[in-house]
Amino acid sequence: MKNKLTLLILAIFSLQSFQVISQPAPAPYGALPSERQLKWHELEMYGLVHFTPTTFQNKEWGYGDADPSIFNPSEFDANKIIAAMKDGGLKAMIFVTKHHDGFSLWPTRTSEYNISKSPFRNGKGDMVKEFEQACRKVGFQFGVYCSPWDRNNANYGSYEYVKNYREQLKELYTNYGPLFMSWHDGANGGDGNYAGAKGTRTIDRSVYYGWDTTWAMTRKLQPTANIFSDIGWDVRWVGNEKGIAGETSWATYTPIPAKGYAVAGPGLLDDSINPYGTKNGNSWVPAECDVPLRKGWFYHDDEKEMVKTPEQLFQLYLKSVGRGGCLDLGIAPNTKGLLADEDIVSLKGFGNIVKKTFENNIARTAKINASNIRGEAYGLKNLLDDDRYSYWASSDAVTTPELILEWQNEIEFDLIRLRENIKLGQRIEALEVDAMIEGAWKKVGEATSIGACRIIPFANPIKTDKLRIRVVSSPVCITLSDLGVFKKQL
Fold first, then answer.
1. What does pLDDT average to over the chain?
2. Which residues pair with 296 in a beta bridge?
3. Most buried among 23, 24, 78, 313, using CB within 10 Å?
4. Neighbour-count burial of 224, counting CB atoms closer than 10 A to its CB (0-12 exposed, 13-18 middle, 19+ buried)
5. Where a domain ends, among 313, 335, 358?
6. Based on the domain organization, do 390 and 458 belong to the same domain?
7. pLDDT per residue as tens digits for the range 444-453
8. Is residue 133 part of a domain?
9. What pTM, to 2 d.p., does this model score?
């Protein structure tokens, strides 16, 4: 009888264990990211490198009339530039292969106005290839930007140019390995040199480029490449060049047409919503936050004092990566073909702040309890591992659970980092943070739109031995993948 009772107890225990372990995963919610977009989110920071004859003219935008002979960066070293970017914590680069001036930095067959007509490498150079190879050496991802506006091409404004532009993209897509991004901006038409015919060319942005056709080619030739534009197929422009996303910033997005247009398209949308995205939007199109390291996108010798400091860059990190986007930092080589010393120092200092700050997660020293756990497979251990896609989940009926962290001794922090498992969508709409201060809970912070990453900064360090995080609004159960408590290290 005793043996039978023991077996019965074991059977019941085994059944209960099986039920805990075999709880079904939460259902996905809303628009979801593609595999290429997940890889993009994981990068968090990358650089956009501007370097053309415009650099040698000390201008921000080239007119298309620069003599190729001025492009002669005698000390150019892609490896040194990439090394400085890596020291800054960047993980990829987008190279401006052709800016609005029309000068191609690879020996293209599509235009005579290219690097082979310059003294660089005695006319045998290919700067796109040199940057691409330097990236591969250190594990950087590589992407390209080829301006659709060409202020040197005689055919700009006609369909012949559109065909020419697609051929340029085809060369870039087929000769430089897998790309993580094909980047396109909204500069379209205006005055230029147009192969010696100075004047103004106007286009109908709603139809001229035929973007659907062009981007179908991108998908075919570069399936890993995220397409960036102001409207975006994969990644949207954040709506400013300050590197700042909205305090509430949804990765989901439904574009709104610009005034006077029936359909939203590149250059034809109301971008006032871009910093914020669209709650429960139609598609997953997260924000890229672009900003130059210097005052402008190109190097200017008289702007040495305008290089952003490491602390300024860290604040931009909190307002871009820390709001669910990626930080795209403009990098500008000088006329020697190197980064200026002040740029290198700033990048290194910024990289050190990020590395030192986030290498010590104080949450790992706490005892953590949750008001609800979906089952063993979705337990609290998943919050503290290094896997962005393992997660703590609540039961379907529990949409406002809370976590309590307790330490044996008082700790001090000024940053909290949270991430959702975005493979299941962006779910949490709002949460609040309380700290135990003088024996009572006191609200010290709050956040909205958690998504891929939400960093909550505190103006003054918080000292406590107990912390509470309360989800106050979510349409569905929680799938939180990361919990970090940090103290900024300068």
1. 93
2. none
3. 313
4. middle
5. 358
6. yes
7. 999 999 999 9
8. yes
9. 0.94
